[in-house]
Specification:
The chain is mostly helical and 101 residues long. 67% of the residues lie in helices and 0% in strands.
Length: 101
Amino acid sequence: MHELQRILTNGRTINRNPNCNNLMTTAEREFVAFTRAVTELFGPEYAGPSAEDWLNEVASMECTPGPTSPEWRLVTVAALARLAIRMTVALRCPSSSHSAD
């Protein structure tokens, strides 16, 4: 499991490398802002799968973005694209589950 994913999933920050403080703060802020927005706009039933999508996007990256990199926003945009697909499927097939990936 990717180190960032393990840290964010467990809900705690363990910075074994002091140079990672800004990176973890930036990643956590983006992750928290994303999950709060999804919860507020679409409800908690979409927040969990969307949080997993965000973490999967980070884990699939070849290298972790730098502390001030706009690439963290690209992770969020990719997770939002998955949310859009999930919601489109839910609207077209109301009886199906929300787990369309």
